[in-house]
Amino acid sequence: MYSVALGVIDRARARQRRRLGIVAVIAICAAVTVSLIVSRSGDLWAGRASTVSVPSQLAPAAVFSQAPDMGVACHAGACDSVGLAVWLRRPAVSVSATIAGHPFALTTRQARPFAPQTPRKMFVGYLTALQLVTGIRLVGPPSTWPTANSPHPLVLLRITYRGGRVVMTRLRVPVQPGWG
Q1: Which residue of 58, 68, 143, 179 sits 20 to 30 Å from the alpha carbon of 92, by its own alpha carbon?
Q2: 23/165: higher pLDDT
């Protein structure tokens, strides 16, 4: 009975050694494969860095075909959102904006009724954050706008073009009443 127990333990140890051997062979193969990839490409990270585009800052005039349009939008009886429309000089893949620290995306879907002949050049988006009304200091009833005191919040835009080129621009856009 004592020898039977040792036989079971010996077989278990042999299986464990085989498993460790297989894991070691796989690890060695993986290391060789990685070293071959790095030696052929020169630098593994250099290839990845070239695909990531560092955003470039451009003046608004270089990006837009006409001035952006922004205004207080009323939906379902509440005037708690701001709409933004931009017209680009060339087609883009995506556009996002940040107003008073609130980021949001602009899409071509909402722009189609206004500019069907210029695909991917007009983007429209709505920021529905009630804090925005106080964040950009929209004071007084919109019917009193536009005046010299109308809000002109700073709008940051990030535009991604085909091929991965990313452009950033910033400008102050006057807020209009009854937009959208």
Answers
A1: 179
A2: 165
- The dihedrals phi and psi of 167, each to the nearest 5 degrees, come to -120, 140
Token digits of residue 66: 């006409």
Q: Which of 43, 70, 47, 56 is nearest to 161 (CA)?
A: 56
Q: Which H or E element spans position 80? A: strand 78-88
Q: What are phi and psi of 168, to 5 degrees?
A: -120, 145
CA pair distance 153, 171, nearest whole angstrom: 8
d(CA 106, CA 155): 13
Sign of CA dihedral 63, 55, 136, 91: positive
* C-alpha torsion sign, points 51, 56, 62, 65: positive
Size (the chain), residues:
180
Tokens found for residue 148: 């010299």
Number of H helices, E strands in the chain: 4, 9
Q: Is 70 helix (H, G, I), strand (E, B) or coil?
A: strand
pLDDT at 133 over 90: no
